[in-house]
Design a protein that fits this description.
2 copies of one chain form a homodimer. The first copy, chain A, is an alpha/beta fold and 221 residues long. Helices cover 38% and strands 18% of the residues of chain A. In chain A, strands 3-2-4-1-5-6-7 form a 7-stranded parallel β-sheet, with helices on both faces. At the A-B interface, α5 of A face α5 of B.
């Protein structure tokens, strides 16, 4: 009997992610995989992005957490369809977890699906879920040494949102170093300096994301 | 031929961690496994702890990072023996990585070995390395919802150091919620409210750690 060996878990995940992607393309759903350290501001950025783009696009959200539904609760009150993934200990979302949520969505009515990953600057970057782009948040209190120390997530992301710029007077954050080191990992990285608290800089992020969605829709008429 | 199957990677790791522990006990070396999200202040807490305790104890440090040696460089300038582990992508330190560093140390001359783990609030908590205690840092900009969302690291730690209390006026941090939820995971958790920047609250941490080391030495005469 021939035994098929799955070469590694990442290969298997890539195949599931490709299936997800095919399904999203069929329904013209643009998917953002949003990643960061715990507490960098993912859920707040999702809330602000919903607020800015909900009149133009039908938006849905997948919340990834080890346990708890407190982030999903924050999205649900905005009247946005949201599904919570509880990973039960796992440190990232993978393609299969996303696939399991899809029957809960009416995909052909969704323009933009935002997947908020588990708070973790390492593992989520290794797993495709069928997204169009990965985007990541670096918050100023984390420090400017993070791009040099955690290069993969910067390399894999299309955008880096530098959040909590309102805290710059109170933390040691070398903006030029953070940007320079991130661009070493990924010279095409789009960079936004924002404060989700004051909304400073967010309009550039909204416009950039809108351009991405429009370009995608043109490619998939 | 009988094939021995290692039941899972955590079992194998536990055995290596026990071997490490036996070697530490033989040399009366107290080992702290220090964990947190990226940028919560692990290296700064290590620097401050060295400064406070170096006249009483011989201290050494293992720095764990995916790549880079910038944290180890910060410790080396203090004249403290330090070994850098570069995990090359892995999101945590395990027992075997620590074992590989041990020939670099003169263990019988080390009273306190601090292992600074990779910045990650999830995976490091799953792996024993032969430590006496795990300790973790929660920084106030990360938010008070972290104990509810990432319970394992609070459950596994003997101490939670709430750092960056100097930023409390500028961030939304519910101290009572953070402490209450952390104690739900671990009713015996020792909690310290500190600012590594201003040194506020650190003396309680130093005293607690000193008591732990002294108690260990009494048990291993």
């Amino acid at each position: 009997m021939k035994i098929n060996v799955v070469q590694n878990v990442l290969d298997a995940n890539d195949r599931i992610a490709m299936d997800n992607r095919a399904l999203f393309d069929k329904n013209r759903t643009y998917v953002v995989n949003l990643m960061s350290s715990p507490g960098a501001g993912k859920t707040t950025l999702v809330e602000k992005t919903i607020d800015a783009l909900k009149d133009k696009y039908a938006i849905s959200v997948i919340e990834g957490d080890i346990q708890d539904t407190c982030d999903a609760d924050r999205i649900a009150v905005l009247g946005i369809p949201v599904v919570q993934i509880n990973t039960g200990g796992a440190c990232h979302i993978d393609g299969n977890m996303v696939r399991e949520t899809l029957p809960s969505f009416d995909l052909d009515k969704i323009d933009l699906l935002i997947v908020e990953n588990v708070g973790n600057l390492v593992c989520p970057a290794e797993f495709k879920i069928g997204e169009n782009i990965k985007a990541m948040i670096l918050s100023t209190p984390e420090g400017a040494d993070k791009p040099a120390k955690y290069p993969l997530i910067f390399q894999e992301s299309a955008a880096m949102i530098i959040n909590k710029t309102d805290l710059i007077p109170y933390v040691d954050f070398d903006m030029e170093r953070a940007k320079r080191d991130a661009l070493v990992s990924n010279k095409d990285l789009a960079i936004f300096e924002v404060s989700c608290k004051t909304s400073s800089g967010l309009s550039d992020w909204f416009r950039w994301l809108e351009d991405k969605i429009e370009a995608y829709k043109k490619q998939n008429p």
